[in-house]
Amino acid sequence: MSTGRKPSKNKVKCIKTRMKIKSIKANTELDSRGEWTISIRLKLQNGVEAITSVPQGKSTGSYEAAYVKPQIAIKNIAKIIDPALKGIHAGNQNLIDHAILKLDGTQNKSKLGANATLGVSVAAAKAAAISRDLPLWKHIAHLLGNKQKKTEFPKLFINVINGGLHTKNNLDFQEYLIIPKSKNIAESVKTGLALYKNLGEYLSKNFGKGATGLGDEGGFAPNLKDNLEPFRILSRVAKSSHLQNKIQFGLDAAASNIKKTPAQLTKLYDELKSKFKLHYLEDPFAENDFKNFTKLNKSIGQTTLICGDDLTTTNVKRMEKAHAAKSINCIIIKPNQIGTLTETLAAIEQARAWNWKVVVSHRSGETEDDFIADLAYGSSAYGLKLGAPARGERIAKYNRLLTISQEN
């Protein structure tokens, strides 16, 4: 998705002096699940326009920032946010976001809605990047104070089989992931695409064409005999594709939505670790079960990333609790869980200070906005969780990373 209209270079110097917000408008659009979300158009006095659209989660954590109905979010932008932000310099992200937080005045964005606050916050960052003739990822790196001229690309966390709340099949776990080992983005995309296509052919041949239906993130959604069968299949497909040494396995359990006991889950994770060398495990227990997160992190955290999502919700206060308990060594970053870019970057900085791996993530209800690709690269994230190499809203992120590889 385009970040907006880019000015000609001979106008850049003049434009930088007139980067004040002129207007903010919003309207409705559809997300990848066919549900209504919002799109924001932010215009500066220099004529630059930036557009962003806001994703939505389905299996949301209880501690995520609150969304309001799209029509209410649009009204809040028109009546409250737009009048208050007019005249503020788009390059002052902290000032913009703190003004938004003051206007909202709640702990969880329940007055204005995190969909309204995030959309405006990201649109302002896009407008500032365009005005300064910078790629968005480089503008984000500057906001974080990253001085390096070159950074490594994030690892791709590719959803290939879906389960849980994001499908109608019989698998408890939500996302079965492959993680290409290559640090070259083009090679990682090539590896992920090859395995995904070969997996589709395998499922169709062995389980029928119905097995290649897709879940919310574009992963295949077959009915299988148990929760470990996807990794057995992936191991076979990887070997037959000569990719077994080029990928690692990951799992988003989304255990807040699973009825199994912690003991039953732990037994499954031990089996996954021993049989499939599981590299990444997200939300292995319910969102308040810090105790069992801690036990698992102590047990296998030296060689497996134990990642918090519903546990931490991109919220520094929740992160502090997880850190004190030594519950995780990795964190999911979802900007819409917290509601502004400034708070998102604060969570990233705090995670890095604790030596946690950072994985920027999409949502199940995505849009064609490719902002998270720039966020992952600009923040030097360890990984980007971006769904399967299928469907326009996911492909947009892959293509943006490929473009960034040419910009760097």
Features:
single chain, 408 residues, alpha/beta, Enolase-like, domain 1, 11 strands, 15% strand, globular
Q: If you had to describe this structure to a student in words, what would you say it looks like?
A:
About 1% of the residues have low confidence. An eight-stranded mixed β-barrel has the order 4-5-6-7-8-9-10-11, surrounded by five helices. A three-stranded antiparallel beta sheet has the order 1-2-3, with helices on one face. The two termini are 19 Å apart. Helix 2 packs across helix 4 and helix 5 crosses helix 13. The radius of gyration is 21 Å and the shape is globular. It is built from 14 helices and eleven strands. It is an alpha/beta fold and 408 residues long. The protein folds into two domains: 126 residues, Enolase-like, N-terminal domain (Enolase-like, domain 1, 2-Layer Sandwich); 253 residues, Enolase-like C-terminal domain (TIM Barrel, Alpha-Beta Barrel).
Q: Can you tell me the overall shape? A: globular
Please name the CATH topology of the largest domain.
Answer: TIM Barrel
Task: Tell me which oligomeric state these chains represent.
Answer: single chain
Biggest pleated-sheet summary: 8 strands, mixed, barrel
Strand content: 15-25%
- What's the number of structural domains? 2
Mean pLDDT across every amino acid position: 94
Q: So how many helices?
A: 14
Low-confidence stretches: 10-14
What class, by secondary structure content? Answer: alpha/beta
| CATH architecture title of the largest domain | Alpha-Beta Barrel
Sheet with the most strands: spatial strand order: 4-5-6-7-8-9-10-11
Distance between the termini: 19 Å
CATH class of the largest domain: Alpha Beta
* H and E order: HEEEHHHHEEHHEHEHEHEHHEHEH
Helix content: 40-55%
Number of strands: 11
Fourth-tier CATH superfamily name of the largest domain: Enolase-like C-terminal domain
Rg of Cα set: 21 Å
